[in-house]
Amino acid sequence: MGNLLKVLTCTDLEQEPNFFLDFENARPTEAEREVWLEVDVVLQDARGILDELQAYKGAGKEIREAIQNPNDELLQDHAWAAVVPLVGKLKKFYQFSQRLEASLRSLLGALTSESYDEPTQHLEREQALAKQFAEILHFTLRFDELKMINPAIQNDFSYYRRTLSRMRINNQPADGENEVNNELANRISLFYADATPMLKTLSDGTTNSSEDTVSFCCGHWSSVNPLRLPSHPVGASPKSSKIDNKNLPIENTTDCLSTMASVCRVMLETPEYRSRFTSEDTVSFCLRVMVGVIILYDYVHPVGAFAKSSKIDMKGCIKVLKDQPPGSVDGLLNALRYTTKHLNDESTNKTIRMMLQ
Q1: By C-alpha distance, which of 292, 338, 328 is closest to 312?
Q2: What is the distance between the alpha carbons of residues 91 and 62, in angstroms, rounded to a whole number?
Q3: Which residues pair with 228 in a beta bridge?
């Protein structure tokens, strides 16, 4: 009766998708293969990036000793030698974020193309690409979680920049200077200054906010904002891309995101679908993807995921999270509380705000 009432009284939320997205076994069709292969090259490197980030210990001890003994050249050299290779890792993580952004844009170009009329059709019939989209979001949340609990990242890079500046002023040779030039250092510094750098990279790339503006009024788009995709996806030659120079309206993107959130929620709350997952890891994956999609939607959509006009059933998604075993999804609930953009807006439903308290 509750579901029937929701359908009968629904205004902004369209009838929810009802199909099983096979996160465990999806394989690319011939039509998906080109984009899938391009993105797979990037995703193959994602696990190694997370492993390196998780193992990142920093050079805190060496930096403290150097700062406490500014006249001890041996300790200065020791700290510099410790920091330079770490900055190489931070540079690698930053460069990977650019590759990941390009991959996401390629996927969104495919999943919102005119080959199908509705986002539901794309996700149901292009499940291998939908799975890759989910894997990118899963990686993004995990990367940002690891970054937030590791203050050594920003401390190391700040020390590197200060020391490099001092060396230049004193005309001292710097063996690690070629690792990161000044322009790149500025970009990397801004990247790590954000609490959730990988999410910000993806959301900025998705909205293309530096080039376009969007007008939204009374729950409707008053102008189409083209998301300018790369001339060709990462790793591909310009001639090989099927989505060259495609202008993607931002509303297509938000529709794709809201549909993915609905698909995840329906699978998690429907026993018939949930029982088809062969591993609890897949359940955790689906929960994380649902939250990742909500957060990205909240950044991309002008009024966010929590407004009445949102196409995401936030109450339903939060209920699914709270129905999980105690303590198992605290990190995901905290992600909704602290890394979203619009939760504290006046337009946010009070019930939703209370559910997340």
Answers
A1: 292
A2: 20
A3: 247
Determine contact, residues 119/111, Cβ cutoff 8 Å. Answer: yes
Contact in structure between 11 and 308 (CB atoms under 8 Å): no
221-268 pLDDT per residue, tens = 333 333 433 434 444 433 333 333 345 567 888 898 999 999 999 999
Residue 227, φ and ψ in degrees, nearest 5: -85, 110
Question: What string of H, E and C letters represents the secondary structure of 120-152?
Answer: HHHHHHCHHHHHHHHHHHHHHHHHHHHHHCCCH
CA 237 to CA 28: how far, in whole Å?
20
Q: Which residues contact 227 (CB under 8 A, 6 or more apart)?
A: 105, 108, 206, 207, 208, 212, 247, 248, 249, 250, 253
Closest of 258, 270, 255, 254 to residue 320, by C-alpha: 270
Separation between Cα atoms, residue 356 and residue 321, nearest integer Å: 10
> What pLDDT, in 10s, does the model give residues 297-342?
999 998 999 998 899 999 999 999 999 999 999 999 999 999 999 9
pLDDT tens-place string over residues 179-199: 687 789 899 999 999 999 999
CB 148 within 8 A of CB 195: yes
User: What are the residues whose beta carbons fall under 8 Å from the beta carbon of 169, sequence distance 6 or more?
Assistant: none
Contact 137, 104 (CB under 8 A): no
Q: Which residue type does 52 have?
A: E
Q: 330 Cβ partners below 8 Å, 6+ apart?
A: none
For the range 266-270, what are the long-range contacts, defined as Cβ-Cβ under 8 Å and sequence gap of 24 or more? Answer: 266/16, 266/17, 266/18, 267/20, 267/21, 268/320, 269/316, 269/319, 269/320, 269/323
Length of the chain: 357
The rounded distance, in Å, linking the Cα atoms of 339 and 335 is: 5
Radius of gyration, CA atoms only, the chain = 22
Q: What is the largest CA-CA distance in the chain?
A: 76
| In the predicted structure, residue 12 carries a pLDDT above the cut 50 | no
C-alpha dihedral over 235, 124, 244, 236, to 10 degrees? 10
